[in-house]
Amino acid sequence: MDVTTPRLLRVAYASDTDTGSDTAPAATPDADGRGWRLNSARWSGDPLDAENDAFKGLSAAIEAECGPWNAAARRLVKDYFARVDASVEAARTELEARLAPYRGLFGYRDFRFSAPRPLPRAHLPISGHAAERVDVAFFPGGGRCVAFVGRGTMSPRRDAERRALLMRAGVTVLDIAGSEDFAAILMTGEPFWAGEVLPCGPLLPRVSF
């Protein structure tokens, strides 16, 4: 993949004028080949929802990262989390058998956090060009990058140029409009939890003194 600094993805929370933010966090999406997953970084906030469900709360938090005006991106993130949940439920028997020796210390649903993390409003630096913004990016692992894009306020010519640059850089580009095709992210020959010895969540432990 010819995305420059592929181990440094800047997740820019752009302003309404699309100028970006100097304080945007940086991620290391594929330093070890695992990709960038829901549990790749500790979440220092409190994404628990009213039902005290960290997975639902994390889904809502990442939806909010899409911004208030991009309904297609928010819908994609919501649908993606639903697909992750359904995939783990379908493998419940297998996952419970794997965790049986730990006598309830882990739950099979904890493997949901092994799924690739959606990265809304990601800016992907491309060799020889300025960074290209996409609606939602994923780094599923193995050096791959999948980007969902919509034209938005871009001219058709500029949108086509952006897509061409991304594809030449080795990025899998999918149209965000009505897209529910997550096969390029989740269905890559083996389930996303296959390489995980034990499940791990993204929340920092609470320590009281």
Task: Walk me through what this model shows.
The chain is α+β, with helices and mostly antiparallel strands. 27% of the residues lie in helices and 13% in strands. It has helices at residues 54-65, 71-90, 92-99, 156-168, 183-186, and strands at residues 9-11, 26-27, 119-120, 122-124, 132-133, 136-141, 144-149, 172-175. It has a 4-stranded antiparallel sheet with strand order 2-1-4-5, with helices on one face. The protein has a 4-stranded mixed sheet with strand order 3-6-7-8, with helices on both faces. A hairpin with a 2-residue loop joins strand 6 (136-141) and strand 7. Helix 1 runs antiparallel to helix 2 (71-90). The chain is elongated, with a radius of gyration of 17 Å. The model is unreliable at 1-28 (pLDDT under 50).
User: What percent of the residues sit in helical stretches (DSSP H or I)?
Assistant: 25-40%
Major sheet: size, sense and barrel closure?
4 strands, antiparallel
Q: What fraction strand?
A: 5-15%
Structural Rg: 17 Å
In short:
This protein has five helices and eight strands, in the order ββαααβββββαβα.
Keywords:
four-stranded antiparallel β-sheet; single chain; four-stranded mixed β-sheet; alpha+beta; 209 residues; 5 helices; elongated
Helix-strand layout with pairing:
Elements: E1 9-11, E2 26-27, H1 54-65, H2 71-90, H3 92-99, E3 119-120, E4 122-124, E5 132-133, E6 136-141, E7 144-149, H4 156-168, E8 172-175, H5 183-186
Helix pairs in contact: 1-2
